[in-house]
Specification:
about 70 residues; mainly alpha; about 50% helix; globular
Length: about 70
């Protein structure tokens, strides 16, 4: 179950939400700029958009790839 409010540290929950929202998207080939935007646009996202970094986006991407497999 997804937490009420998603934070950058909730990489698995974010990945699941993205997988459900973009089922036809191959997460292996997304740009981090798009990933950042999609995360901040998620309904339950409630964190400072400036708090993300490459490591956080990479963790989300890896979890999304795992979900897609």
């Amino acid at each position: 179950m997804t937490p009420q409010k998603l934070k950058w540290t909730d990489s698995l929950d974010i990945a699941i939400e993205l997988y459900e929202k973009f089922p036809e998207t191959d997460p292996q080939y997304i740009r981090f700029t798009d990933l950042h935007r999609w995360v901040t646009e998620l309904k339950g996202f409630d964190d400072d958009p400036q708090r993300s970094n490459e490591g956080i986006l990479e963790a989300i991407q890896m979890n999304w790839i795992d979900e897609a497999d």
